[in-house]
Every structure is written in C-alpha cells, then in structure tokens.
TrEMBL record, chains A, B:
<dbReference type="Pfam" id="PF03453">
    <property type="entry name" value="MoeA_N"/>
</dbReference>
<dbReference type="Pfam" id="PF03454">
    <property type="entry name" value="MoeA_C"/>
</dbReference>
<keyword id="KW-0808">Transferase</keyword>
<dbReference type="InterPro" id="IPR001453">
    <property type="entry name" value="MoaB/Mog_dom"/>
</dbReference>
<comment type="similarity">
    <text>Belongs to the MoeA family.</text>
</comment>
<dbReference type="InterPro" id="IPR038987">
    <property type="entry name" value="MoeA-like"/>
</dbReference>
<dbReference type="InterPro" id="IPR005111">
    <property type="entry name" value="MoeA_C_domain_IV"/>
</dbReference>
<protein>
    <recommendedName>
        <fullName>Molybdopterin molybdenumtransferase</fullName>
        <ecNumber>2.10.1.1</ecNumber>
    </recommendedName>
</protein>
<comment type="pathway">
    <text>Cofactor biosynthesis; molybdopterin biosynthesis.</text>
</comment>
<comment type="function">
    <text>Catalyzes the insertion of molybdate into adenylated molybdopterin with the concomitant release of AMP.</text>
</comment>
<keyword id="KW-0501">Molybdenum cofactor biosynthesis</keyword>
<keyword id="KW-0500">Molybdenum</keyword>
<keyword id="KW-0460">Magnesium</keyword>
<dbReference type="InterPro" id="IPR005110">
    <property type="entry name" value="MoeA_linker/N"/>
</dbReference>
<keyword id="KW-0479">Metal-binding</keyword>
<feature type="domain" description="MoaB/Mog">
    <location>
        <begin position="183"/>
        <end position="320"/>
    </location>
</feature>
<dbReference type="Pfam" id="PF00994">
    <property type="entry name" value="MoCF_biosynth"/>
</dbReference>
Length: 406, 406
C-alpha cells in the first residue's frame, strides 16, 4: 500500500529527537572499568593532596634556623626513604637524609638537594652542605588539592588521567550514567547469514555489524541483534519483544514506500510518530517513533543512508542519554572537488576533509549513492549540498560535520 | 651513588626511540573483533558490488523496447521480492513488480517507480504506467566495486564503516598487526595497594591505572602489572622476568638521581642505553634502554612527568608498532594565560586548548608541578615553554600537541 508521508527538515527531525524524554539512570562501577564512562556526580577529595609534607628532591632535610652561612657540616640522624615516616625531633645542626617523595620531618623547613652536599671523611653520620638554595624542595600538604575540593566534575568523561586522580584519592568506585542498552533489528529476506555463501539476489547484513560498532563506540551497549525476513508477523513480534525491554531500538530496512513497509506500519500505529519522511538524501524514509516510552529509530536499509542516519539522529541521542553533546564537530567548509548531482532535498554528502591554511576542505568520497558502501571506511565527514536545481560550485562554502573517532 | 648523566634534547630522545627496530608481527582476527585494529594487508573484493543488477526503487521492471509512449498498460508476470531471483523471460508488453534491492530480470532495462503507475481495474495481473522517467533505477553489477579492487587498504585503522565493507564482501577474518604486549612495573616502597587505607608517607599507585589505560587506548595490550618496593634484588628479578617475554616494558619510579636509582642502574648496564637524561620538564630523568631486544621505557614516578613522558615517548612507539604515526596533533598555538615560571630546560606544560577564529589558544591547566596530578583529567594538550631566563609573554606563539582521545 502506498501511503502519503509529510517530509520535514533535518533540523526539525533532530529537534523532535532531542525532545524525546530519556529516563537516564546511574550505576556504580569500579574505577578499573570506568575509562571513558561519564561521571554522574562530582567526586570530592576525602583528604588533601599531597596528604603529607613531601620531599620534591633527594637531599638533606634541615631546620629553618640552620638555613644560612654555608658551607657547614651537619650531623646526619638517619635516612627517610619514600614510604617511611619520621617522628624523631630535629635539633639545630642536625639533618636527615631524605629521598624524593618521602615524608619530611615536621621540624624541617627545607630539603637541600644532594648535588649541593659532600660527604665528610667518609662518615655516613656527617654531611657538609656546600651551598644553600632558594626553593624549599618541599611540597606542602594540600598544595595540589584541598580536602573537600571537587577533583572530577559531573558529566565529565573519565580518561586515564582522571583514573590517576581517582586512584590517588583512594577512590575505588564511581557513580556513572548507565549506558543505553540498544537492540538492533535488521529486516530483509535478502539478508544472508555471515556463514552463508554469497548468492544471486542476496546480500550480507553489512549494516548490522556497522551499527553495533557505531553504537558501542558512541557509548551504548548492544545487547540484542537479529536479522529477520520480510514477514509482517515475525517483524511485529520481535519488535514488540525488544521494545518491551529496551528504551531504544534501532531497525534498518523495511521503511521504503513499497509493499514491505512493515516498520513504517508500526510507526503509523505508534503513540507518537516523530517523523517518517525527512527532506534529506540519502535516507529520506528515515523514521522514528515512540511507543510505550521506547524510541524506535528506523534507519534505511541502504548502507549509505543507514550510516548517515546513524550520525544525524542516533549519535546525538546516545550521547544525550549520558548527558553529553554530539561529538560531530560542525564546521564551515569549502567544497574542494566537483559534485554535480542536484536534488530537491538537502544532501549529506559522504566526504573526506583536510585542513589547509586554517580552512576545512571537503572532497566527495567515492560513489555517493545511498546504496553504495565502498566509501564508508574512508568517509571522515558529512558535507551539506543544499537542495537546488543547479550544482554547487567548487569553492563554495557550506556546512560540514566531522565524524567522531574516524 | 651519584652518577653523571648527559642530557639530550627531546627531539634527539624521540629520534633514538624512533630508531629502535620493532619486530612487528601479524595475526588473523574475526571481523567481529576487528574494530580499530590496523590492517596488515590490502583487502580485495572477491566479487563485484553489487554482485547482481539491483533495483534502486520499488516499481515495475520493463524491457528497453517498451520504454516509450506512456501511459500504457502492461501484463504483470509476478513479483520479485528482495532476496529472490527471477529467471522467466520478459516479453514485450510484460512487466514484473519489483522491490527496492531486489534482483532485476536480465531482460529488464528500467524500473518504473510505483509512484508513476496505477492499478488497472483492481487486476493484480495488470498495471498502467502513467509516465516514463529518465533514470533506470537499476544499480548495475559492479557499480560500487569491481571484482579484485582493493576495498580496504593496508595500514588503515578499521572502523565501523570498514566493517560494513568487509561484511558486504563476505569476509570473515582479516590480517591485522599484532598489538604490542606490554608489562608495567611501578616501583616505590611508598606505594600502597588499592585496598590499603591511606597512611602518612604512603601514596596510591596512581600511575599504574593511568599507564594501563593509556597503553590500551593507544592500541597496546597490558598483560602484566605489578608494584614493587625499592628493593634492588626484587626489582632486578621482576624486570628481567618481564623483559624475557616482552618486547616493551614500562617502569615508573626508580629513576631519580638518588640512592634508589635501581632502574637507572639496569639502564647503565644495558646493551644500549638510549638516554637517561632529557632536557625537558617535567621528567628530565626519563630513561630508555634496550636489552636483549626488549625496550625498557623508564618513566618518572611523578604523575605529571609520567603522563608527559607517556605521550612524548610511548604513544609514538605503540603506534609505530602497528605502522601508525603518532596521534598527538602538532599545532602552532598561542599562550592565552600567564605562565611565569622559567627553566633551563624546555617545559611541556599541561594545558587546555580552545579554537578561536581559527587559532589554537592554550591555557596552563591548574598546577604544573611534576608531582601534581589534579590536572591530568582535564589536560587536553601539551604546550612548549622553551628554556629561557625570562617568562614567556601571554600572546606568544609556540608549539603545542593536542592529546588523542581527550
């Protein structure tokens, strides 16, 4: 059956996606598993850092009152290795050998670097300090961080440097946003299993592995994938099952205007149809709807359209689920090689970019049909070819979006 | 014992690292595990893509000879769903209903979109084509890729788009470079275990978790980590064990000029001492040596110095192991906030950057002592403060390196 659809702009479609409420939740994870997770709460310092007065250099710790009139000899009371403490009082004329990072005696005001000292007659209990120095070579308690200060802030993506900070404060677990769990359903009787031999009329499910990995590197968790033949009852049953236990379901295929528009049928019957036609190429049939608080994103089965649709609509959603902005970087760019096709809808052209003299130059990347996929590996940005009846001239400035993790 | 060291420039230290031969090897992995691995061989198309003539639209397939003088009625022979094939000859005046993505009959030269057709008296075996159209709506065999063409090239990092390409060609496994297996050994009697309570003079091993995650997100595999007290025999034993079965070992701590320079001792006795003093802050004691074909990178135990040393020396090495260039992006940048400290060595200042009007502006990030770590999470670039006796003025242009995955 041929049903009419009302096309909306990409901006309007993105705004409708943005308006869908998401029930984000938090969870507690050990820091060993927290790299690149998003903090859901500020983390405060439970103690100052450093939490003891620390020697910045190898040398000899002395009192303030002795810090003048060098060279002179000192009695060496002992040695403080890193990791040790020292409780014995330090009198005038006395020094303690101290290692970098070690606990500085409370009485000491300065560490004279070992380079500024000499042994006295080979006596391990005596040292001569040759010259003084201006720096104390002591890192005072709390120099880096005061107790109670925020050490990592909410909504930051934890990175290896952040893990060092957490470990330094003895923090074992952090509260992070849950990652959205996403089901991916590919439809199409033409889809082979990956172990089947190639056959006429059939294709492999190339979108499935692409979407799974795109979701994962965007911060989502894919906990269900399947591929289904074009059978209305099967598609409806599996879609309902997955909607029942997912907040987000991605489908691909089954949204064309023909007889097998099964996902489109579900969309039209849904609580809220967000859109089922967008003024864009490729992927004008891209569809989204909400049913029982589950968002279903129905991407085109065409590889190029599926790829583009993911970046335009799903990437921002998965980021938002974890309180992040899209990582597609919007820039103004210059079309640097010819693209002659025109269209009544805006085209998101798969391109490569380079930066020259501070300008982003975009080059159409290989074949840009919606069904072509050879360029997906090497596409590093999407560039806008606005709808027009005349081709965009080389050298024209336009909008482009640099793709993350490419 | 106090031993003299000969300082070299950062560029010279990096050149010496670059000159170390690496025995890179390849391995075969299933494509399901290949995202972000580096291809070690070109991948060729074993068949053309598409591998059959494919309908680009839902509609009716007709012969070339019938493609004129519309409107006219056609006899409908049947329907070709996506995934099916069609062998029956197509005579003049005959059409076949066909779905997007389906196999086009060999006799057909065009697919007339369904929007251009009407039913005839409700008869499913007849259709009227109202108007013709210029496009064939058929994607010919090999339009996207010819058989034998390179579909992914050697030394590319596979991404989700690339996985789609591999799957489309039925490729189940790819040959990629082995990831370097790296052991990380932290030294220092001051190091607590992560489950110990904090104690005076002691610290947690913050470098350990940082280095492990930095190595992993750079493409290495960490298969051994430990932390050892400052005991010469223990350090020597564990270091030797790990050198015996690793091409790369990272240590941190134990390279200061003091009494506990155990790693430094191993360096001096090694087959090839690459360097043990670099004209840089922080981390001038950063040391590297090769022994029995194992490279040992001895980073400072100071968190800031350890962080900086990883990016300056280890990141390029791990990338090179997999035939990649460093992902630190070198830019010219402007110091946008005061930094008044001067030093006889070049300083790699931990900074944040922003791009304004096409310029990179760098801001010193918090406390830049070598022992400070509060800024490691939020540092997004390293900026060069060249050695000088006068502070670098705000507004001065300098070199900066944007950190990857930050």
């Amino acid at each position: 059956m041929l049903t009419r659809r009302t096309p909306i702009s990409v901006a309007e479609a993105q705004a409708r996606m943005q308006a869908v409420p998401l029930k984000t939740a938090t969870e507690v994870v050990p820091i060993e598993e927290a790299n690149h997770r998003i903090l859901a709460a500020d983390v405060k310092a439970s103690y100052a850092y450093p939490h003891f007065r620390r020697a910045g250099m190898d040398g000899y710790a002395i009192r303030a009152a002795d810090d003048h009139d060098f060279p002179k000899a000192f009695k060496v009371l002992g040695e403080i290795q890193a990791g040790a403490t020292w409780e014995q009082p330090l009198a005038s004329g006395e020094a303690v050998r101290i290692m970098t990072g070690a606990y500085v005696p409370d009485d000491a005001a300065k560490v004279i670097r070992i380079e500024k000292t000499r042994a006295v007659d080979g006596d391990p209990h005596r040292v001569k300090i040759i010259t003084g120095e201006s720096k104390t070579n002591i890192t005072e308690t709390g120099t880096d961080v005061k107790q109670g200060e925020t050490i990592l802030a909410r909504n930051q993506e934890i990175n290896p440097g952040g893990l060092a900070v957490l470990r330094a404060f003895g923090i074992k677990k952090v509260t992070v946003y849950q990652q959205p769990r996403i089901a991916i359903i590919a439809t199409g009787t033409e889809l082979l299993n990956s172990t089947d031999p190639i056959a006429p009329g059939k294709i492999y499910n190339s979108n499935g592995i692409m979407l799974k990995n795109l979701v994962e590197e965007t911060g989502g968790v894919v906990d269900f994938t399947t591929q289904l033949p074009d059978d209305a009852a099967t598609i409806e049953r599996v879609l309902k099952q997955q909607m029942a236990n997912h907040e987000i379901v991605i489908t691909d295929g089954g949204v064309s205007v023909g007889d097998f528009d099964y996902i489109g049928d579900s969309a039209r019957q849904a609580d809220q149809l967000l859109f089922n036609k967008i003024k864009q190429r490729p992927g004008s049939v891209t569809t989204a709807f909400v049913q029982d608080n589950t968002l279903v994103m129905a991407l085109s089965g065409n590889p190029g359209a599926c790829f583009t649709g993911f970046y335009l609509y799903m990437e921002p959603l998965i980021r938002r689920y974890q309180h992040q902005k899209t990582r597609l970087q919007h820039v103004r760019a210059i079309l640097a090689a010819p693209y002659n096709k025109t269209n009544g809808f805006d085209r998101y052209l798969r391109c490569r970019y380079e930066i020259k003299d501070g300008h982003y130059l975009v080059y159409p990347n290989g074949i840009n049909r919606s069904g072509s996929l050879a360029n997906l590996q090497t596409t590093t940005c999407l560039a806008l070819i606005p709808h027009s009846t005349t081709p965009m001239q080389v050298g024209t400035e336009t909008d482009a979006w640099l793709l993350p993790f490419k």
